Amino acid sequence: MKLILKKDVEHLGEAGQVVTVKPGYARNYLLPQNLAYEASAANLRRIEEEQQRAEERERRDYLEARRRASILEGTTLTFQARAGEGEDAKLFGSVTSADVTDRLNQEGLEFEVDRRQVELEEPIKALGSFEVPVKLHSDVEVVVHVNVEREAD
To answer: How far is residue 55 CA from its own chain's centroid?
Structure first.
């Protein structure tokens, strides 16, 4: 029996895939659990149209992310922070991904950067220059330079 999967099914296939299964498996498990539907001609056309729309949406998202990356390219942010004495002084506090996001959004960009897009592994707790990756799309990442300077007393 031919079915189109609505959701990913382990050891069978991914959503949108046409699979052939035994009638009992389809009738007793896949159809009642709403994991698949019959592969009729109309349903096959519908799934093909949905896949085309998804591909087009993915392409638009990728192009938009590339455009945004070109805007962010070469961006440098400077933070003033209180720090201890000495060359390798630690900050009293830290610069987090939320701080970087807020500063980017204050830069007057034509789009908002989400905090989850800023991939700062751990908060910055020292003076100096750092490279912070910003992931705008699964295939598009841009580096923002962050300088942390000692706050003038």
So the answer is: 17
pTM: 0.71
- Beta bridge partners, 96, equal none
Q: Could you give the domains of the chain? A: 2-68 (3.40.5.10), 74-150 (3.10.430.100)
DSSP state of 108: T
Strand, helix or coil for residue 96 = coil
CB 81 within 8 A of CB 148: yes
CB 38 within 8 A of CB 60: no
Task: Confirm if 8 and 14 have CB atoms less than 8 A apart.
Answer: yes
The letter for the amino acid at 68 is R
Measured distance CA(44)–CA(18) in Å, rounded: 8
Three-class SS of 108-135: CCCCCCCHHHECCCCCEEECEEEEEEEE
Per-residue pLDDT of 91-132, as tens digits, reads 888 999 999 999 999 988 889 999 999 999 999 999 989 999
Rounded Cα gap, residues 87 and 126, in angstroms: 10
